[in-house]
């Protein structure tokens, strides 16, 4: 094999012909046209050339000794390395069968000898262009395939990322929903969740005749005391512990929810009668009566429970909760640590209460309150030493309403502060007038009741001082009465306030002594000037045992340097006994009921003196 000239940028053409003249002629012309031309004189040389160099085209003679063009072509086509090289046959054979055979074994063209070089050139150019186009197409295809692969990969990874995002979002949605429907402290369902459950229960009750359910509203008793004395952290811990204890009593089908604060609600499913709901309430109360072992403290807590049955046509979740809540309030009013079942009459009462609450807000502005004064009598001399100021509400349509009825409401709504300060102002003013009118060696005093709710007012002592200045009353003639419950709620704050008041020379009196709890420990801790023995002891003073108790109270008070007042003396015999026991003062219907200020003047004008005669008569 030999060649004329090699240029790497040009196409390589192999010319195979056993006639050297033909070979030279073709090579020369093709070379002149700009091709690298390789020459082979027989089939063997041609095949060898194809193994060593790479060709873009082969011009192949058919008739050659040893190995003809057909065999060369077949060998090339059978070899993957060479099968793609286009082969153009050059032959003197002009039979159609020869041409058919040539094409059938893989030739791309067929040129009959003798040929015109222009024809050879045109066919060579055409085949090379075709091959170039094919190569281009292959290239483009490969590129396209690559791009498709790349794109597919990108799409797959985007798809993967999207899938992950969807999963994340779903998880977030579940989390948000969970947060929206649960209480984070106890992990219990919250009010919104319970409302949904109540809706379902109501719908089910309408469809299924035999299905009935109950709602229990539970509120812890004195929870505030725990929070205030042991701190919110302990309060929170206790709430979680209560939640866990309640859960243990319920079945899977029931719903326990925390409504907020120390309030829980339970939806009891499949309740055949009210007995099942009250049994559950009893179980709860029983279970809560065991102490709670918290991380640092052992705590006792009770609860009041209101129960209502979901059995009415017009049930709505909010009505059910409201009714159970109303019943719970009744349980509290009846002494706490108990349950109460709702009855529709209570709803009416609750409405009236609400009305009263609204009226009360306006009563302060409308000056609907009046103060009555009940004399406090020195039991040794039988003369009046002072008065207790007792407020009354002159309701425009309901008439006189007693403080026992509206003070608790005023305490709840916060109106109490305004009322108490108004009473204080009024009483100090009145007393000053009486002191000026009746000049006595021991001037009259006035006792004013102070709700524990006022203890939270940081400027209370300043307000009292202002009233004293305005009325020009000497503070030592003012006595403030507070009940034990006021001290229990926040003993530390109460202690500070009491000390501050005493520094201003105001006297302090513990009211209703003996009706609360821990009385003795409070007496010891708080520096009261006066102890007021509750009416319940006076009522039973004729019984020997009770007499001993009253005697012990009086002696203890005197030992601690306190004076004593007995409340609710109604009979002369009570008067006589208290006198014998050296009780300092007495107060009660035996002497006088709470009087309006005009009646007080009449009484004072008559300078009364009482003696414990069997009839309890008054001597003037
Ligand atoms: P309290 O301070 O223990 O007042 C004594 C209550 O016993 C008064 O009831 C009085 O009328 C009544 N009472 C007095 N003697 C007798 C008697 O011989 N027999 C009977 N059965 N009752 C007698 P009232 O006026 O209805 O007041 C009830 C409670 O309301 C008071 O109990 C006091 O805790 C509270 N309160 C009254 N006025 C005010 C006030 O201005 N502010 C505050 N925060 N509470 C007040
Ligand atoms: Mg009182
Ligand atoms: Mg009292």
Structure description:
- There is one protein chain.
- It is built from 21 helices and 24 strands.
- α2 (43-52) packs parallel to α3 (69-78), α7 crosses α8 and α11 packs across α12.
- The N and C termini lie far apart (163 Å).
- The protein binds ligand C2E and magnesium ion (2 copies).
- The site of ligand C2E has 23 residues, from β15, α12, α13 and β19.
- Average pLDDT, rounded to a whole number, is 92
Strand order of the largest sheet: 14-15-17-18-19-20-21-22
Bound molecules: ligand C2E, magnesium ion
Q: Identify the overall geometry.
A: rod-shaped
Structural class: alpha/beta
Low-confidence stretches: 1-5
- Radius of gyration in whole Å, from Cα? 55 Å
The overall strand count is 24
Q: Which sheet architecture does the biggest sheet show?
A: 8 strands, mixed, barrel
Percent of residues in helices: 40-55%
| Total of DSSP H or I helical runs spanning 4+ residues | 21
Q: Provide the β-strand percentage band.
A: 15-25%
Q: Distance N terminus to C terminus?
A: 163 Å
Name a few traits of the molecule.
single chain, 620 residues, alpha/beta, 6-stranded mixed β-sheet, 21 helices, 51% helix, binds ligand C2E, binds magnesium ion
Question: Helices and strands in order, then pairings?
Answer:
Elements: E1 2-3, E2 12-16, H1 20-32, E3 36-40, H2 43-52, E4 57-61, H3 69-78, E5 87-91, H4 96-104, E6 109-112, H5 117-181, H6 191-207, E7 213-221, H7 223-230, H8 232-249, E8 255-260, E9 263-268, H9 274-288, E10 292-293, E11 298-299, E12 302-310, H10 317-333, E13 339-341, H11 344-365, E14 369-378, E15 384-395, E16 399-401, H12 403-413, H13 416-437, E17 445-449, H14 460-471, E18 478-483, H15 484-489, H16 491-503, E19 507-513, H17 519-525, E20 530-533, H18 535-539, H19 544-559, E21 563-566, H20 572-580, E22 585-586, H21 597-605, E23 609-610, E24 618-619
Parallel strand pairs: 2-3, 2-4, 4-5, 5-6, 12-13, 15-17, 17-18, 18-19, 19-20, 20-21, 21-22
Antiparallel strand pairs: 1-3, 7-9, 7-12, 8-9, 10-11, 14-15, 14-22, 15-16, 23-24
Helix pairs in contact: 2-3, 7-8, 8-9, 11-12, 13-14
The protein binds ligand C2E and magnesium ion (2 copies).
Residues 374, 390-391, 402-404, 407, 420, 423, 449-451, 481, 511-512, 567-570, 587-589, 594 line the site of ligand C2E.
